[in-house]
Here is the input.
Amino acid sequence: MVKNYAEKLEEKLKEIKSFEALLKDFEAFKNSLERVERLIYKLFSSLEYLVKDLKIKKEKFSLKPAIEEVIFWVTPLCKDKNIELEVDIPEDIEIEGDKDWLMQAILNPLENAIKFSPPGEKVILKVYRRENDWINILIRDMGPGVAYEELPFLGMPFFKSSAEKGLGFGLFLTKKIVSAHGGKIRFNLPSQGGLEVLIEIPYNFKRVSISSSDMGFAK
Here is the structure.
C-alpha cells in the first residue's frame, strides 16, 4: 500500500512539474506577444520609417534574456527543420538602446540563417565583447550563402540575393536599426560555406541620424 501511495505521489509531482513548465512557456509566450504588440505600435507610429529615422527609445537592458526571447520565437522553425542552434551568450552584458528594435535586428538574420540552412545542420549564435566598448553578435549558417559579388548589396532596401525569396526587407530593416544605434553590420562568406552576419553594437547608446541616401535610397 505504501508503495502504491508513493507511486501516486510521484505521478502527482510529475503533473505539477509539467504544469510549472507550461506556466513558464505561457509566460514566455505572453512576453513575446507583448513585444510584438509594442513593435506593431512602433511600426504604425513610424509610417515613413523607410526614408526617415526610426523612433528609438533609450533604455539599459541585459542582452542575454532579450536574445533568449528571440530564440523562443525561432525554436519551432528549428524543430521543423531539425536545426541545432548553438548559442553562446555571456551572462553579464548590458547594453543601452531600444530593446524591441534590437531584438528585431537579431531576429531577422537569425530567421534567415535557419530558413536557408539544410535540414539537420547547425546555426551559430554567438555574442562576445570587444575591448573598445563594443559587443559583437555573430550569426552563422551552413546554407548556400550568396554570390561574392552580391555581398555589398546585402542590407540594401528590397535587395534579394539569388537564393532568397520574399521582399528582401528583413536585412534592410536590421541594417537600419543597427545604424540608428551607431552600430555596423558586416557580411562574410566563411571558408566552410554558408553566410556569416556580424552585428557590431556599442555598449552605450549612440544615436545617429540616418538619411535616406545612407540606407541606399536615391535622393
